[in-house]
TrEMBL record:
It comes from Agarivorans albus MKT 106. Its cofactor is Mo-molybdopterin. InterPro entries: MsrP, OxRdtase_Mopterin-bd_dom, OxRdtase_Mopterin-bd_sf. GO terms for biological process: protein repair. It catalyses: L-methionyl-[protein] + a quinone + H2O = L-methionyl-(S)-S-oxide-[protein] + a quinol; L-methionyl-[protein] + a quinone + H2O = L-methionyl-(R)-S-oxide-[protein] + a quinol. It is an enzyme of class 1 (oxidoreductase). It comes from the Bacteria. The keyword Hydrolase does not apply. This is Protein-methionine-sulfoxide reductase catalytic subunit MsrP. Its EC number is 1.8.5.-.
């Protein structure tokens, strides 16, 4: 399975627009600035153990990852300005307005952090994020993020392949799905305390994938973005990134991953099953019952939110990597 796919996001630099490259470089350089990286972390001392466990500065560990795989984006996309990607968020645990998460997550402390991988596995594990940072090969991947609300961004994530993490627990042959769960901590997450603030969701936020989707090389666990550790509002310290699916599948601040033999319940599907399916693959031909999915607003340099309206692509442009997962499936039914 691994060797079958060409890593198509690894395009030569010559294929990338000068603007995208320039911005990527500028962001990487910015990300290495000790002050820049430290400003997003609880404290420098804690940050060092958060990002690697050894004596190396977190920014240096990220730099090592970026040097190894300085990967330009797929499709000649220009990066979304960092300031927008970290201030226009969906993270209902901190409120439902786009600017709520950045405001209401200031006190959120993701350090120390541990999470469990269990269920139908040979070797259940509880992992400290330090252990994970020490074990996993970090890399940067520039991916599109398409929200079901018809806006999109292009974000340089830092993290590691989800399948590399999942292989550590040796899934049993009976495992068919992987379930994910966000932290439940109403003291730190005001949306979990009040149904009004949290949009009526029954927390914790949960998500799920079929096993083959989880093992697809595109499935990514992010621990950073723009060359820095993840800000709280973007899902610190550890979140999923699934570029061919609507953004709500990319669950944030993960504390549990569980292998199961039945399709796990997912938050938005529970809330409104006729609007949000389990699969949630980006599909311009299957509209949301209340709006079209044929196009999207790309959040860019222009104006407050960005002006450019572009056509939405099937699987968000990642069809070559993932279309085979859904062969012979009726995607209007399994939306
Ligand atoms: N994860 C949790 N736990 N809670 C949420 O409300 N929102 C989802 C997803 N992950 C959400 C979540 C939605 S709808 C989107 S579009 C993306 O996060 C947004 O990610 P971003 O804020 O980093 O752009």
């Amino acid at each position: 399975m691994w060797l079958k796919f060409k890593r198509d996001w690894e395009e030569p630099e010559s294929a990338v627009t000068p603007e995208a490259l320039f911005k990527q470089r500028r962001n990487i350089i910015k990300g290495f600035g000790v002050a820049g990286a430290a400003s997003l972390l609880p404290a420098t001392g804690q940050a060092a153990s958060w990002f690697g466990g050894d004596d190396e500065e977190p920014a240096a560990i990220v730099r090592r990852a970026l040097n190894k795989t300085d990967i330009p984006p797929l499709h000649n996309d220009a990066l979304t300005p960092e300031a927008k990607a970290i201030s226009h968020n969906n993270f209902y645990e901190f409120g439902t307005a786009k600017d709520d998460p950045v405001k209401n997550s200031r006190q959120f402390n993701p350090n120390p952090w541990s999470f469990t991988i269990d269920g139908l596995v040979e070797k259940p594990l509880t992992l400290d994020l330090d252990d994970v940072m020490a074990k996993m090969a970090l890399e940067q991947r520039i991916y599109r993020l398409r929200c079901v609300e018809a806006w999109s961004m292009v974000i340089p994530w830092v993290g590691f392949s989800l399948s590399d993490l999942l292989k550590q627990v040796k899934p049993l042959s009976s495992a068919r799905y992987v379930a994910f769960e966000t932290l439940y901590d109403p003291e730190q997450m005001p949306g979990q305390k009040s149904r009004f603030v949290g949009g009526g969701i029954n927390y914790p936020y949960v998500e799920g994938l079929r096993l083959d989707e989880a093992m697809n090389p595109l499935s990514f666990m992010a621990v950073g973005m723009y060359g820095k550790t993840l800000p709280a509002q973007n899902g610190a310290p550890l979140r999923l990134v699934l570029p061919w699916k609507y953004g709500f599948k990319s669950i944030k601040s993960i504390v549990r991953i569980r292998f199961t033999d039945v399709e796990p319940p997912t938050t938005w599907n529970i809330l409104s099953p006729h609007e949000y399916g389990f699969y949630a693959n980006v599909n311009p031909k299957v509209d949301h019952p209340r709006w079209s999915q044929a196009s999207e607003r790309r959040i860019d340099d222009a104006g407050l939110l960005g002006r450019k309206r572009i056509d939405t692509e099937m699987f968000n442009g990642y069809g070559e990597q993932v279309a085979h997962l859904y062969k012979n499936m009726d995607l209007t039914r399994y939306f």
